[in-house]
Amino acid sequence: MENIVTLGLVQMSMSDDKEENFSKALGMIEEATSKGSQIICLPELFATRYFPQAEKSTIEPEGIPGPTSKFLSNAARKNHVVLVGGSIYEMDGKKRYNTCVAFDEQGRMLGKYRKVHIPQDEDFHEQDYFSPGDSYSTFKTSKGRVGSLICFDQWYSEPARIERLLGAKILFYPTAIGTVKSIEQTEGNWKEAWEAVQRGHSIANSIVVASINRVGSEGEMKFWGGSFVYDQFGTLLARAGTKEEVLAVECDLSLGARIEDGWRFLRNRMPKTYSKIIGRR
Fold this sequence. Notes:
- The protein is of the alpha+beta class.
- The protein has one domain (4-278): Carbon-nitrogen hydrolase (Nitrilase/N-carbamoyl-D-aminoacid amidohydrolase), CATH 3.60.110.10.
- The chain has 5 helices and 16 strands.
- The protein has helices at residues 18-34, 67-79, 157-165, 190-205, 254-263, and strands spanning 4-11, 39-41, 82-84, 88-92, 95-103, 109-114, 138-141, 144-148, 170-174, 178-180, 208-212, 215-218, 221-224, 228-230, 236-239, 245-252.
- The strands form 3 sheets. Strands 1, 2, 3, 4, 5, 6 and 16 form a 7-stranded mixed sheet that branches.
- Helix 1 (18-34) packs parallel to helix 2 (67-79).
């Protein structure tokens, strides 16, 4: 049973009041804990509304440590859980980042990851706010090593593979994604593509993938929820609906090793043939 871990996914909506968002998040973390969750994850930018849908905003970044990271530390310690804190609008010197911070059961910071892939299109003006991170990292927890990428990172295969090579057994994607009133989905169903590409990451890397989205309508955007967990061979373990919800999902971390022993996806890699991946523009 030491390989069995229960993940808690907090799918929530946000208001303009940061303290109200903290209070709601804490209540949902407590609910996840009561359901047996040992590692809990929040959505991207959980402390605020999704301000990057506008080119300018009055939302101010904060340092780490700061109010949001202190809230996360206290919540992890109070509930004695590992907490992957969605993401924070971080200010470091003159640069601003979209940053995920994780804490252990005693509220100690395990590390942080700064979102690398930053979207910039209609209603997702993130490059007006965030500088890209320049590295990947994992968090060593009492339940095993976990990784966290953030939202738009979901569409890229390389970060997921790197997180797996760094030893992650679970990969979290705190997310803020939905439909936009003024944009038609002419290329196909966005939600189906979003879930399918992440399922592919789970299979290709023999890793548990958990994606945690927000819900609710904010301006032009309607966040579709649909938070989910796929196991290491792409089997759906749980999927949330379109409303606020807490999922507690049991995962068998030993399955990844069994898949690698049988299919050998990682040991049969041929890195010497991959040089085109790092070709410079």
